[in-house]
Every structure is written in structure tokens, then in C-alpha cells.
Amino acid sequence: MKKSLMALGIALMLGGTASAQKVTFEEFDLDNGLHVVLHQDNSAPVVITSVMYHVGAKNENPDRTGFAHFFEHLLFEGTKNIERGEWFKIVTANGGNNNANTSDDRTYYYEVFPSNNLELAIWMESERLMHPVINQIGVSTQNEVVKEEKRLRIDNQPYGNLIQAVKENMFKVHPYRWSPIGSMEHLDAATLEEFQAFNKKFYIPNNAVLVIAGQFDNAQAKEWVKKYFSAIPKGTPVNPNKFEEAPITKEFRATYEDPNIQIPMVVSAYRTPSMKSRDARVLDMVSSYLSDGKSSKLYKKLVDDKKMALQIGAFNFSQEDYGMYLIFGLPMGENSTESLTKEIDEEIVKMQTELISESDYQKLQNKFENDYVSGNASVEGIAENLASFYMLYGDINLINTEIEIYRSITREEIRDITKKYLNPNQRMILDYVPAKDKAQK
Fold it and tell me: Which residues cross the membrane (predicted)?
């Protein structure tokens, strides 16, 4: 009874916190199609100005991969009114910081400034959109930067090509089959005119959402947004191609050799639906149940109890068009990757045929309540969530209501969705192994 009361108390506390954190916002559109979202938060004298563009790796040509990520770097080079090399100096001189990131589906830029520098931030983002300088010196400079990033973060990292190894085998026609960092050969071969054409096509106001979040005067912010962004002309609407993958109906195997590892990894990969679907959210819960934390089923069984694995994990890699569900393991000692796969499959069969316990279900509910609170705990997090829910999900109010979807997921749904997607005939087994030439040394 004491444990039950404690669990109830935690649930009520988290539920109350989540409810109290309802995010308020205002939206409007400029005539050029730019969507603007304003969220006021006076808890600290800071303001975040961010722009998300609906362009990612999936919008690239197969022989010109890496463009979206390349632009994440290139558009800090300078503009008509911000000289080359001055962008970061202006930001730091005014007490701010900024960054950007790219995925398969979108590119996101943001600045964090003291609240008295909002006009500067709005002007800088309008400059990035209206007056970018895309010349050969900038392209050549950022080409070297991207190559170094790839060497450090991917090529020289143990298991650094894991996601790419899965994607290139799981997708046959969809652009998800390559990674955002793309091919260095493609970037080397690209002409300046190709970069300029990419910018003209995708970096347009009607392919973007501007979010301002933090401490600011609402009327003044609107005035500045209109002042600096309204003159930017609307672009030709982006109509991305649709790609449909044939269902996986028979298990197949693939191999990837990595010169940076000594211990092989086995990966079971399943293709899953869009992150916008209810099924994808149920799969989030499935992955948490299997491998989130040391008390999760796979970790406790294979790492703690049987000591068969050095590491084990499951995660739902959700994206706008499709997702991938990955379960991976590193065998310990004399254990084989085949034995790990067998043990993992046994746990999945249990989920497909039995309901998880009430206590495990409550643990999942508590975790997702906590994740919801954490995701909206900072103004930076709220700004990115607002942009993502608007652009990628088509429902900005999910920032407040998505938690209700997770709350409504039942134990029966967890069983049924596991049975629907995580079957041997619907997967690839990837053997991620040490490179042969290294193994022979």
C-alpha cells in the first residue's frame, strides 16, 4: 500500500507539473508566407529567435547529398550587410550565442540573446534569408569544415557509421537512405551555381517558420518582424517528391565493416511509420520498456543477470515520412551476436503475447510525463518544439496535447503494436563488424 501511495503521489505531482506548464503562443502569417510564432516567458531576461526551414537531407538529389547540412554551415559565412567572419563576433559582442542543426527533414537556426537585443536577432535572421552571400570562397572554406566534422564525428568514431549503415540498407528508394552529412565527393563535385540554386529553392519565407520565445514586448516584436521580413519576396512553393518503400516481408542480412572497432555489434532494424502516427508513439514506449535505464528488461536480462552483453539498447528513430526501430547489442566474452539476437527475440515475443505489468506500465507513464516536463523546461526547448510541431507534425498545439496521446496508450496497444511491427520477417539483421584488414593485423 505504501508503494502504491508513493507511485500515485509521483504521478499526481508530475501530472500537475505538466498541466501547469501549458505553453501559450500566438501565430500569424506575413504576406510572403512566413509563419511567425510568439511565445512570451518572463522568467528570465533572455529571448530566443529561431528559424526552421523545411529542408533536410531528404530534399537533396542522390548525386548531390550533403547540401542541407552544408548550408547549415554556409549561411553563417556572411550577408550583404554582415561581412564575412563577422556573424559570430556580432553575436558574442552582444552577449549572445547561436547554433544550427540539420536532420533528414529540416534545418534549424537559432540565437539566444539578452532580451534587449531582440531587434538585432530578428535583423540577423532576416539577413540570412534575404541577403546571403554565397560565393566560392565561402563554399571552399565550409567544404573543409564539413570534411573535418565528418572525420571527427563519424569516420574516426567507433560505431560512428551505425545509423548510415542501417539507413542505406533499409531504404531502397527514399532519400532517407543517405545521411545528412552526405558525400564529400558530391560536395567536391558541386558547382557554385548548384549551391546558389539550392538556396533559391529552399531558403524562402514560405518554406520557413520563425519562432520568438522569451521576454519581449509582443507589439514591438510584431513590428520588427514585419519591418525586417515583409520585404523578402515569396518563393516558388516547394513540392517535395513522395517516395514509397515496399514493405519488408522477409528477413534479410547486411554487413558493415568499421576499422575503428574491435567488438562486433548486431542490429535488428525494422521499418516503422511516420513520427506523426499514434503507432510511432507506442513504439517510443516499447523502446523505453526494453532498454531505457538499468532496470529495463533487456539491460537487466543481458547485461546484469546473464552477463551476455557489454551494451544493449533499443530506440525508435522517428522521422517525418518513415521511422526505423533499432535494437542493438555488443556481445561479451565468448557470447555470439546470434545468441544475443535469440535472447532479444524472446523478450519481444513476451511483449507480443503478454501484457506488461501494471507497475511497468506506470513506470512508463511517469517517464513520459517527466520527458514532457523536461522538454518544455527551457525557453530554448519550447522554441524548437513550437517550430517542429508546426512544420513537421502540422499541429503546433501538440506542444500541449501530445502528452495526452502518451497518457492514453494502453497495455493492450503496447502488446499489439509490438506484434504489428517487430517480427523477424519484417527486419534486417545488420552485422556491424571490425574491418577485415584490421582484424588480420
Answer: none
The pLDDT value given to residue 274: 97
Give me the residues of the chain with pLDDT under 70, please.
1-20, 437-441
Cell representation of residue 222 = 510584431
Q: For the chain, which domains are there?
A: 23-229 (3.30.830.10), 252-436 (3.30.830.10)
Give the number of other Cβ atoms within 10 Å of residue 298's Cβ: 23
Angle of CA points 120, 122, 124, to nearest 5°? 70
Give the burial class of 264: count Cβ atoms within 10 A of its Cβ; 0-12 exposed, 13-18 middle, 19 or more buried: middle
Residue 293, φ and ψ in degrees, nearest 5? 95, 165
Helix boundaries (H) for 230-336: 278-291, 297-298
Query: What span, in angstroms and rounded, lies between the C-alpha atoms of 197 and 223?
Result: 31
Count of CA atoms in the C-beta half-sphere (13 A) of 240: 20
Residues 117, 121: Cα–Cα separation, whole Å: 6
Report the b/e string of 160-197 with b at 16+ CB within 10 A: bbbbbbbbbbbbeebbbbbbbbbbbebbeebeeebbee
What does the pLDDT read at residue 241? 87
> Quick one: pLDDT at residue 295?
83
What is the per-residue pLDDT for 437? 66
